[in-house]
Structure formats: C-alpha cells, structure tokens
Predict the 3D structure of the following.
Amino acid sequence: MGANRHMSVDSRGRYTPEAAGEVMSGTEGPAGSRSHNLISTRRVSLMQEPVLVLNATYEPINVTAVRRAMVLMLKGVAQAEEMHNTEVHSAAHAHRVPSVIRLLAYRHIPQQSRALSRKNILLRDRNTCQFCVRVFPSSELTLDHVVPRSRGGRSSWENLVACCYRCNNSKGDRTPEEAGLKLARRPRPFTLHTSRQLMRLIGHRDERWRKYLFY
Ligand SMILES: [Zn+2]
C-alpha cells in the first residue's frame, strides 16, 4: 500500500508537478465521486477545512480536508476524536464536522515517506525562493539544482531547492558561489519532523489540535 509516486521529469528535463507523496495516499480512492453522493457539497468551503489525521497511536501523521476525513469515517477507516459544532447533511443523516480524526488500524509510516516531488519541495521551502528569500505562488517558482546537473548534481532533497525564475536565470549553470548567490538554508530531506512543523502552522487556528501537536 502507498507506494510512493516519485518525481517525474519530462523529456526536456523539467519537473512535472506530480501528485504528492502524502502519507495517506494509500487510502485515496478514485477522487471523490462516491463521497460526492454521500455528503452534500453545498458548503464547499467548510468541506475544504483542514482536519488533523492521527495514527491509531494518536501520533499526528497528516492533514486532510473535512470531505476526505468524513469519507474515511463513513468507510470505517477512521473515527472522529474532535468535532466542530457544525453539521453537514446527506440525504438521510446529519454529520458533525470532524476537526481531528484517528485511524482505527495502525499505519506504518516509513521514516522518509515523503516522495521527492516538486510539490513537496515547495512545501518544504514554504514557497520561498531559497536565494532571494521572497515568497512566491507555486506557479512562479521552479526547482533549482544547487550543484548543476552538468556538474554531476543529483536530483535529491539535498540538491533541489525552490527558486524564483529570476534567481534561476541569473544563476544559470553555475554553483551558488560562482553566481554570487547564497542559499537561505541547507536543503534537507522532508522528514516527519518537518511535516509536524507544517501541521503546527496549519493547526494554529484550531484549538482542538493543540493537545495532539504540542507534546
Ligand atoms: Zn529568487
């Protein structure tokens, strides 16, 4: 289950925005058509609200959307641990909206379960160009090989960083030192620790997450 989908490179050597190596990808069905019928999608924005996903052991492992969380609950894969005071209605039932869910069966999370993908590198670097340290929308960022591929630089977590087009152009086929650029920080693999930091950021607005994240 959950074989990571890896970064793919097209014929011109660019990275294609491949789907994320989300830790929950193993439970993803064909996107949403079934859940569409189960849950009224009148309140679309509510259905997109983030839900914290805990392993069976209460360890936080992911963030998903209310809509996915409710599908997991209806399938008996997860149960709600914390709820919002709002309800959504399907044809026959009212469902309270989850804020935190827990998987009923333990899921083994490999130490580096995050697939090397454009999306995950932008996530790791928080959409910040690692040279000029400015934040950009994903569409205005590319991936830069710190050590250029022409010099044997690999496509790895340690050698790929988010980079705006301007910095990418001025760097060209050179190392940062040669181009007079400085990395904001040393690129590292996206670990579970990194994911927890991100979950904390996302979880800031929901008090119900606190006791699971700040431990
Ligand atoms: Zn830049």
